[in-house]
Model the fold of this input.
Amino acid sequence: MKVTKMVREFCFGGAKLPDPNPQIDVEQVRSMYATQFPEIATAALTGPEAVGDKLVYRFERAIGAKG
Done:
């Protein structure tokens, strides 16, 4: 049996975002990417989903009406 470590990958708006630091938790990753993509701060987080040798987390924009 072979054991391999799975790499985290983050997706937002069709873009694949690399894991900035495997040692930090997912909420800290959200905070780091929120500086570049402000919508991530309020996006729903789904995952992880195993895809090949990666654990994929998805940030999905919150849908709502303005006003």
